[in-house]
Specification:
The protein is mainly alpha-helical and 206 residues long. It has a domain at 1-94. The chain contains 6 helices and 2 strands; from the N terminus they run H-H-H-H-H-H-E-E. The protein has helices at 2-34, 42-57, 63-92, 96-107, 119-152, 162-180; strands spanning 184-192, 195-203. Helix 1 (2-34) packs antiparallel against helix 2 (42-57) and helix 1 (2-34) runs parallel beside helix 3 (63-92). The longest helix is centred in the middle third of the chain and has 34 residues, at 119-152. It is flat and about 65 Å long.
C-alpha cells in the first residue's frame, strides 16, 4: 500500500509538471502569434508531446490521476488544433496579427523612404506606432497575469484568447473614461471568492 501511495505521489508531481509546461507553452504561443516573440516555441511543444507519450507507455491505475491525464491530453490536443489553425493563417498571410504588424511596419518606415509625406506627419505616425506597441505590451502583461491567476485558482484557460481579453479591456477603458472623465485606466488582477478577476481603476480623475 505504501509503495502504491508513493507511486501515486510521484505521478501527481509529474502531472503537475506537465500542466505547468502546458501553461507556459500556451503563453509562449500567444506571444508568438501576437508578434512579441519571433521564434515559434517548437522545442517546448515537442517536450510536452514527449511527456504525454511517456504517460502512455505505462498504464495509470489510479482513476483520479487517469482522469486528470486524459483531461490534460484532451486540452493539449485542443491547443494544438488552435495553434495549427493560426499557423496556417500566418503561412497564408491572412492572420490578423500579421496585418497589424504590417501596418505597424509601414508606419515605422524612415522618413527618407517616404518622400511624399511631410516630416511632421511621419513623426505623428511613428508616435502612434510606439503608443500602439506600449498599449499592446500592457494588455499582454495583464493577460498573462490573468491566465496565471486562473491556473492557480483551478480555473480553465483553454478557451480564453488574448484577442478576446484585449477587446474586453479596451471596452472597459472606453466606458470608464466616458464615465469618470479620467486620463487613463489601470488594471489589476485579483482573486475574489476563489476566482481570478481583472479590476479596472480610473487614473487621473482630479
Amino acid at each position: 500500500m505504501a509503495r502504491i501511495e508513493k507511486a501515486d505521489r510521484g505521478l501527481s508531481v509529474e502531472l503537475d509538471e506537465v500542466e505547468q509546461k502546458m501553461f507556459v507553452l500556451k503563453i509562449d504561443y500567444e506571444k508568438y502569434f501576437s508578434g512579441l516573440e519571433r521564434i515559434e516555441p517548437l522545442r517546448a511543444r515537442d517536450e510536452v508531446r514527449r511527456l504525454m507519450r511517456d504517460f502512455q507507455d505505462e498504464p495509470i491505475t489510479n482513476s483520479v490521476q487517469r482522469f486528470r491525464y486524459q483531461t490534460l491530453k484532451a486540452r493539449f490536443q485542443s491547443q494544438e488544433l488552435y495553434w495549427q489553425r493560426n499557423l496556417v493563417l500566418m503561412e497564408r498571410g491572412t492572420h490578423p496579427k500579421m496585418r497589424f504588424r504590417a501596418d505597424a511596419k509601414a508606419k515605422a518606415v524612415p522618413s527618407e523612404l517616404i518622400p511624399d509625406l511631410p516630416a511632421e506627419q511621419i513623426e505623428v505616425l511613428r508616435q502612434r506606432h510606439e503608443a500602439q506597441e506600449r498599449e499592446e505590451r500592457a494588455y499582454k502583461l495583464v493577460f498573462d497575469r490573468y491566465l496565471e491567476a486562473r491556473t492557480k485558482c483551478g480555473q480553465g484557460t483553454d478557451n480564453i484568447s488574448f484577442d478576446a481579453v484585449r477587446e474586453a479591456l479596451k471596452k472597459q477603458v472606453r466606458q470608464i473614461k466616458s464615465t469618470y472623465q479620467c486620463e487613463g485606466v489601470k488594471f489589476r488582477v485579483v482573486v475574489e471568492d476563489g476566482k481570478a478577476k481583472v479590476k479596472a481603476l480610473p487614473q487621473g480623475t482630479g
